[in-house]
Amino acid sequence: MMNSKEPQWLPWARELQALAQSGLTFTRDPYDRERYQRLRALSAEILATHTAASMDFIIDLFAGEAGYATPKVDVRAAVFDDEERLLMVRETVDGGRWTLPGGWADVNLTPAENAVKEVREESGYMVRITKLAAVWDRTRQCHPSGVFSCCKLFFLCELAGGQPLTGLETSEICWFAENEVPGDLSLARVLPGQIKRMFDHRRQPGLAADYD
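User: That's the sequence. What structure does it adopt?
Assistant: Structure tokens below.
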């Protein structure tokens, strides 16, 4: 099922790029290599035609991707305090909007370890993971479209120490009750319905993890 907000050409271009990347990884035939390179170029042409990005920029972006094509992993931490308030941070990018602490998962760390690290780096707080609350596909959740496929993991956390501290990525840190969550969310990172679902998981610890 395609994200109804995405133009039809985007999933086509995304799939062409993934096929080309995987093909270039495994083929040993020089003629097949040429065909996969042409597939990658076609994907770049589609994106360059429909976006403001230059052909050279997209080709360089694709050239940095190697190996079997798989979704990228984004982790988000839903941290609650004893007053049932949710921790949120204001980004220094994307217009200074609010989001849950998180980001791209780093190698050599588990997804849960990545979530703990992101909270510490973006807010100054130490947390303990209590639950994997959701595994969502970025496209199926109707986030703003991206070039690459992305899997988003949401972890429920409890406060374990630390103190509020902004950094390079965040300009403000705050705790919000459910009826106080700000409206200016960074929609590329988190959606209002996802925030609501984190409060549901906090109130009902026995809820099964959500997935698409």
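The helical segments are 9-26, 30-50, 55-63, 111-123, 192-203.
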